[in-house]
Specification:
Blueprint (H helix, E strand, L loop, with lengths): L1 E6 L2 E4 L4 E9 L6 E7 L5 E8 L6 E2 L7 E6 L4 E6 L8 E8 L16 E2 L3 E6 L1
Parallel strand pairs: 2-11
Antiparallel strand pairs: 1-3, 3-8, 4-5, 4-9, 5-6, 7-8, 9-10, 9-11
Length: about 130
């Protein structure tokens, strides 16, 4: 089993920054990739970014490319999501998820590819 706990959400003004953390515990050696997803009220959960265990080939949704950066702190078994230039449309509950199966890059955008999920952290961006 792999457990994930998100933190770092909060309220920020448009143009501001937040850094989300996803602490991975349990069988940390077994996860293949970690992804971030977000869900706004009344909307489906959308892919944001993903990173592989090796830290290589970070992958982003077009809507956040150039503003968000995903990285891995291997010493702390943590995956970070640095969010800069936040916009009101970034307001959502943000979830991290892990997969223990090595999957092709395009499949990292699908929530069905992930086996374990955190409880989410709320990000609110005011205009």
């Amino acid at each position: 089993q792999v457990q994930l706990v998100e933190s770092g959400g909060g309220l920020v003004q448009a143009g501001g920054s937040l850094r989300l953390s996803c602490a991975v515990s349990g069988r940390t050696f077994s996860w293949s990739a970690v992804g971030w997803f977000r869900q706004a009220p009344g909307k489906e959960r959308d892919f944001v970014a993903a990173i592989r265990l090796s830290g290589s080939f970070p992958y982003y949704a077009d809507s956040v490319k150039g503003r968000f950066t995903i990285s891995r702190d291997s010493a702390k078994n943590t995956v970070l999501l640095q969010m800069n230039g936040l916009k009101p449309e970034d307001t959502a509950n943000y979830y991290c998820a892990a997969t223990i199966v090595s999957i092709a890059q395009p499949l990292l955008t699908s929530e069905t590819s992930y086996d374990f999920w955190g409880q989410g952290t709320q990000v609110t961006v005011s205009s």
